[in-house]
Amino acid sequence: MEKDSKIYVAGHRGLVGSAIVRNLKKNGYKNIITRTHRELDLTDQLAVRNFFESERPEYVFLAAAYVGGINANNKYPADFIYKNLQIQNNVIKASHDFKVKKLLFLGSSCIYPKNCHQPIKEEYLLSGCLEPTNEGYALAKIAGLKMCQFFKKQYEDNFISCMPTNLYGPNDNYDLETSHVMPALIRKFHDAKVNNKPYVEVWGTGKPIREFLHVDDMADACVFLMENYDGLEHVNIGTGKEISIKELAEMIKDIIGYDGEIKFDKTKPDGTPRKLLDVSKLEKLGWKYKVELGDGIRNLWNVYKIKNC
Ligand code: GDP
Fold first, then answer.
1. Is 174 marked active-site?
2. Ligand 1 geometric centre to CA of 266 (Å)
3. I want to staple 100 with a disulfide (CB 3.0 to 4.6 A). Which of 19, 95, 117, 260 is the partner?
4. Ligand 1: distance of its center to the CA of 141 in Å?
5. What integer is the mean pLDDT of 84-106?
6. Which residues of 156-167 are buried (b: 16+ CB within 10 A; e: fewer)?
7. Stretch 118-136: mean pLDDT
8. Which of 67, 92, 198 is nearest to 143 (CA)?
9. pLDDT at 92
């Protein structure tokens, strides 16, 4: 990628896309193109083809997706599979037809089996059944990853994929019904502190184990892969460190300085019991995360306070 290459970031208003744009600008890339959802509906095949035909991007970061936390995924599986397949089919095929030099497809660690051997290596894909709460989203992402591989094999398109662990950072969704755990807990503990509530409800048993990566690190890894990786196999992106939901809740409670209780709502699903990525492949390529979890949470809470107080 040259500093004046024409780079299209699909999904530039989202958590990851916005971080990729920030990272590209910081690294001196000058020719970044974006479209809002209103300007370009990525589920509209003809509109996507027209956009690629007129703009002719050279590089594509496919960070646009229909996303949500465990509750949204569980409730709307049809929307998650259908919309994501549409978005990625349209962008990947248009990238092929209009000769994009390189495309990076962003997936998710939920592509791996529910009871996968840990830490999860790239080759464990399709070695077992998926977690039912996010099966629709996971199947779409597996299809996207395979599509990139197949276009590479059959047509020699330079389409690569990466699979990040649970991400967090600014520009996230704080809606308690549809968000992921990190923004939900920042909001719940902050609101409970401000309103002197006696307890905060955390979904599930608190036992599931997750790995969290700050989105600035994720963006940095995406730009790194675009610059340095041309392999057929997808690449995991994470920290290699894990924490239980109970420990995460306690950490956020301490950082925010909330004195009340934590109650676990066991009527809500736990999802996958453990999700820890093996990130040795990415580390061997020369990339490692920088933002430690405590610093990331403090930073996120500061941004939340500025936006909501
Ligand atoms: P997942 O990694 O795909 O399961 O996505 P989430 O980030 O939505 O959930 C991670 C874990 O956090 C699950 O075990 C949830 O049950 C748990 N969790 C605890 N409290 C909350 C909450 O308020 N919102 C969400 N989304 N998850 C929560």
1. no
2. 12
3. 95
4. 19
5. 98
6. ebbbbbbbbbbb
7. 96
8. 92
9. 98
Model confidence at 307, pLDDT cuts 50, 70, 90, reads confident
Going by CA atoms, what residue is nearest to atom 18 of ligand 1? 203
Pocket test for ligand 1, best of 180, 188, 263, 265 (most atoms within 8 A of CB): 180
* Rounded Cα distance, 152 and 92, in Å: 11
Which protein residue has the closest C-alpha to ligand 1 atom 14? 270
- Nearest-CA residue for ligand 1 atom 9 is 181
- The set of residues, in sequence order, having a beta carbon less than 8 Å from that of 286 and lying 6+ positions away, is 224, 228
**pLDDT tens for each residue of 189-224:** 999 999 999 999 999 999 999 999 999 999 999 999
Q: What is the mean pLDDT of the chain?
A: 97
**pTM for the whole structure:** 0.95
Please compute the mean of the pLDDT values over residues 2-11 and round it to a whole number: 98
How much distance in Å is there from the Cα of 133 to the middle of ligand 1? 11
Average of per-residue pLDDT across 39-43 = 98
- If one counts every other C-beta atom within 10 angstroms of the C-beta of residue 308, the result is 12
Query: Nearest residue CA, atom 1 of ligand 1?
Result: 70
